[in-house]
Amino acid sequence: MSAPVNIVFVVTRADEIGGAQVHVRDLSVALRRRGWDVSVVSGSQGVLSEDLARHGVPFHSIPNLVRPVRPRSDLQAVLELRRFLREWKPDLVSLHSSKAGVLGRLAMAGLGVPTLFTAHGWGFSSSNRVPVRGVLLLIERCMSPLADRIIAVSEADRSLAIRLRLARADQITTVHNGMPDVSRDLRSKPEASPPHVAMVARFAAPKDQALLLRALAGLTDLEWQMSLIGEGPRLEAARRLATELQIASRVNFTGFRRDVAELLAESQVFVLASNSEAFPRSILEASRAGLPIVASDVGGVRESVADGKTGFVVPTGDLEALRLRLRALLGDRDLRARLGDASRQRYERLFTFERMVERTINVYEELLGRDLSGGTD
C-alpha cells in the first residue's frame, strides 16, 4: 500500500453550514475513512469545526481569514496560512469558497505544492452591483494562473469561466456535488395529502423566500402547509410578510435544523426560489428524498432538475410561473408521485456521494501524477 495522501482543505468560515462547508466536511470525513491524512483550515470556529471534531478530523483556525475585505487582516491571513502550510507539508491543498480561494492561492504561490480551487459558484455572479462584479471578475482572472486545477460544481459555471477567461478549458473540470444516501424510511411519500411544501435555504440573498410566500398566497383555495427551513438576516421580514399575506397559520419557520432529511421525508413538494446559484445541494437532498422539485432557472439548476420529468424549472423572479407550477403539483397527487420517483432515480444515477468522491479523487490523481487507490482501505 502506498503512503497515505496528506491533504489540507481551506474554507473561509466554519461558523455556518452552507454548501462549501458541507462539501468540505463530508469529503474530509470520507477521505479520512480511506486512510488519508486530512486537516481543515478556516477563519472561524463553530458548527463546521464541531462536526469535524466529532469525526476526528484535525481543524486549525486562522482568525484573520474573514469574509469581508480587510487588507490588513487579509495580508495577515496569507502569511499565517503560508506558515501553517510550510509546517504541515501537505501533498495537496484544496481551497473552497471565494475568499479562501483568493487568499489561499496567494499563500501557496511558490511553495511547489499542487493547488486545487473548488468554485462553489462565482462571487461576481451573485453581486447586484456592477462595479463589484467587475472587481470580483478581475480578481478571479488574476488568481486563475495560481491554481493548478479548478473544479466547478456545475457545467454552467465551467462554461462561464471559460467564456470569461477565468480558466483554460484544460484547467477546469466539472464535478457535480453529491449527497450521502439516507435510509429508505427517510424517503418522501409525495402522493400524500394534504401536501406539505418545503424550502431549505438561508434567509439571505440570493434566496427568495418572499417570492415563494407570495406564490402560495395565491393558492389558498388549495390545501397545503409549508416549512421554511433555515435562518438568516431576512427571517423576521419573511415572518412579517407571511402575516401580511394572511398565510402565517400555514407556514412553519423552523430555524436552523440538523434533521433536514427527516423534514424532507415528511414533505411532498420541494421549492428553491433563488436569484443566483451554482449547483444547489438542497435540490440534491430533495431528489434523494424522492421529492418533485420546483426551482428557479439559475446556475446549474437545469443540470439537477429535468424540467417536466423530475420537477419544474421556472424563470427567476417569475411569480406567476412559480404559482402555476405549484398549483399543478399541489392539485395532482399522481403528478407528484411520478415526478418524485423520477427525481429519486436521477439522484441514484448522477448525484450520489460515492460518485462525487471518485470523480474528485480522479482530479487529485491527475494533480499528483499517481494512482491513489493504493492509499485507500
Description:
- Helix content is 42%, strand content 16%.
- The protein is globular and about 65 Å long.
- The longest helix is centred in the first third of the chain and has 18 residues, at 71-88.
- The chain has a seven-stranded parallel sheet, sandwiched between helices. A six-stranded parallel sheet has the order 10-9-8-11-12-13, sandwiched between helices.
- Helix 3 packs across helix 4, helix 7 packs across helix 12 and helix 10 (281-289) crosses helix 13.
- The model has no long low-confidence stretch (mean pLDDT 94).
- It has helices at residues 19-33, 47-54, 71-88, 98-108, 130-143, 155-163, 209-217, 235-244, 260-265, 281-289, 301-304, 319-330, 333-350, 353-368; strands at 6-11, 37-42, 59-61, 92-96, 115-119, 149-152, 172-174, 196-200, 225-229, 251-255, 269-272, 293-296, 311-314.
- Helix 4 links the parallel strand 4 (92-96) and strand 5.
- The protein has 377 residues and is α/β, with parallel strands linked by helices.
- The protein contains 14 helices and 13 strands.
- The relative contact order is 0.12.
- It folds into two domains: 6-178 and 352-375, Glycogen Phosphorylase B (Rossmann fold); 184-350, 3-Layer(aba) Sandwich (Rossmann fold).
